[in-house]
Amino acid sequence: MFALEAGAVQEILPATPPTRIPGAPEAVRGLVNVRGTLVTVIDAAEAIGLPSGLATGSGTVILVERRSRPVGLAVDEVLDLVSVASASLDDRASLPGVRPDLVRAVGSAAGQTFVQLETDVLLEPLLP
């Protein structure tokens, strides 16, 4: 289970089929129109290095801001919004199956362990 800092999230939307961008990396799903703004949608699982379980247009899109532009992260689902005290988060550089540079912290909420992602590091190679 992965998490984002709530302050980085602009909006959560149902997924819509994107328009593919020729020559874009496989993790870049394409472009969607969000109220007149073209938003690049990234398959979060593929960007992390995991196999994608999403069919095109399925799941949920989390809009985050990167360099003053919205970017969509396509995910299976959004489970909840939780508050976790920063003191209860562990900085971890090494977790099995997750690139160390993508891990901002590890924590738990409601008995579920999660990995908080470094969204800038995740998006940098896909959206230079």
Protein described:
The protein has helices at residues 44-48, 119-123, and strands spanning 2-3, 9-14, 28-34, 37-43, 60-66, 69-75, 103-109, 112-117. It has a single domain (2-123), classed as OB fold (Dihydrolipoamide Acetyltransferase, E2P) (Beta Barrel), CATH 2.40.50. The longest helix has 5 residues, at 44-48. It is built from two helices and eight strands; from the N terminus they run ββββαββββα. The protein is mainly beta. β3 (28-34) and β4 (37-43) form a beta hairpin. Helices cover 8% and strands 38% of the residues.
Short description:
The protein is mainly beta and 128 residues long. Helices cover 8% and strands 38% of the residues. It has a single domain, classed as OB fold (Dihydrolipoamide Acetyltransferase, E2P), CATH 2.40.50.
What count of structural domains?
1
Please tell me how large the radius of gyration is.
14 Å
Mean pLDDT, to the nearest integer, reads 88
Helix content: under 10%
CATH architecture: Beta Barrel
Shape: globular
Write down how many β-strands occur, each being a DSSP E stretch of 2 or more residues. Answer: 8
Structural class determined from secondary elements: mainly beta
CATH class: Mainly Beta
Strand order of the largest sheet: 2-5-6-4-3
Unreliable stretches covering 5 or more consecutive residues: none
Helix tally equals 2
Question: In CATH, what is the homologous superfamily?
Answer: CheA-289, Domain 4
CATH topology: OB fold (Dihydrolipoamide Acetyltransferase, E2P)
Distance between the termini: 26 Å
